[in-house]
Design goal:
Layout (H helix, E strand, L loop, with lengths): L3 E4 L3 E6 L12 E7 L1 H11 L4 E8 L2 H12 L7 E4 L5 E7 L5 E6 L12 H8 L3 E5 L6 H16 L3 E5 L12 H9 L4 E2 L18 H7 L4 E5 L5 E4 L4 E4 L12 H14 L4 H16 L11 H10 L6
Parallel strand pairs: 1-4, 1-8, 2-6, 4-5, 8-9, 9-10, 10-11
Antiparallel strand pairs: 2-3, 6-7, 11-12, 12-13
Helix pairs in contact: 1-7, 4-5, 7-8, 8-9
Length: 316
């Protein structure tokens, strides 16, 4: 089976227990939960049975140990995760607003995962990659941008594939060179996984109906447009396929898109029937939102099949 590699942040997530606007006053908190979009993606991909590795770093602290224990338990190759003796594990404090939006306070740039070291372990994992998954949230510095682009070019040069999820938070939109970097990555992308308005983020057109054709004309093989409660829509040169979202009681949406993307990428790499892959990815997203904590709703493939079929889905 093809090995997926993702690089970027590993975080401890701490969540406010009350709804409100940001962190301008003392509030009760729950956590730490293992988190970080690349880490969530790697964990869900591994739980589907796909070989998956992450390139990152954690601090020599309990937050780092919480994450490494969880990733290893889910089957992720953590050999390229460095334990930094000087910097703490990255963190994300999140509070939900009354309108369902979220406010984050991140420590990424100045944490262990704010840098990637050139080590034999990192190179070995990158050299073994058949597929690179790039997340926009990890294009957070010129160094991360350069490393993701170099890794994508290397994977493509040996016949591998690249997927790209813009996965943007307002807190990282001002990262230097971010938009140009995303355009560069898009030019190397085989499978594009935007959410909502991200579909037109890098297109000349701002018409969601016209954007897929423009993206396919630029060399992308397939697009999966994640639309939350409205389901997902797949586009390639020969077909457009819609699947609905599964009904779910939303407790915590953080990580749902990463779980969806990981399940779909893993199944796409295996050549799974597209509608079935989309349906199982939708099941992964629905399972994710029903648990507090970004990785707490991750399921293996048998559990995703059981969830989908219990809701009347036909899985081939």
């Amino acid at each position: 089976m093809q090995k997926i590699v993702v690089m970027g942040e590993i975080l401890a997530e701490i969540m406010a227990d009350t709804i409100g606007a940001g962190f301008t006053e003392p509030v009760a908190l729950t956590g730490p939960f293992p988190s970080g979009a690349p880490a969530i993606f790697a964990a869900q991909a591994a739980r589907t049975g796909q070989p998956a590795a992450i390139v990152s770093a954690v601090g020599d602290d309990d937050f780092g140990r919480v994450n490494l224990d969880r990733l290893r338990r889910d089957g992720v190759d953590c050999s390229a995760v460095r334990v930094d003796p000087d910097r703490p594990t990255g963190s994300a404090f999140v509070r939900y607003r009354a309108d369902g939006g979220r406010d984050f306070v991140f420590n990424i740039r100045h944490s262990a995962c704010g840098t990637i070291s050139d080590t034999p372990a990192v190179q070995a994992v990158l050299d073994a990659a058949d597929h690179l998954h790039v997340m926009g949230s990890s294009l957070s510095s010129p160094d991360f941008i350069a490393r993701n682009i170099a890794a994508a070019e290397a994977v493509k040069s040996r016949g591998g594939t690249v997927s790209f999820d813009p996965n943007l938070r307002k807190e990282v939109l001002d990262a230097p060179g971010l938009k140009d970097a995303m355009a560069h990555v898009l030019g190397l992308t085989d499978l594009f996984l935007p959410s909502g308005a991200e579909l037109t983020l890098l297109t000349r057109t701002d018409d969601p109906a016209a954007a897929p054709d423009e993206l396919l004309d630029r060399g992308i093989r397939a697009i999966v447009h994640k639309r939350g409660a409205d389901g997902a829509r797949y586009h390639d040169r020969t077909s457009t396929i819609d699947v609905p979202a599964f009904p779910a009681t939303e407790i915590d949406p953080t990580g749902a898109g990463d779980c969806f993307g990981a399940a779909f990428v893993a199944l796409w790499l295996r050549g799974t029937d597209t509608r079935s892959a989309l349906t199982l990815a939708a099941a992964a997203g629905a399972c994710a939102v029903q648990h507090r904590g970004p990785m707490e709703g991750i399921k293996d493939l048998d559990a995703l099949r059981a969830f989908a079929t219990s809701h009347g889905a036909d899985i081939r």
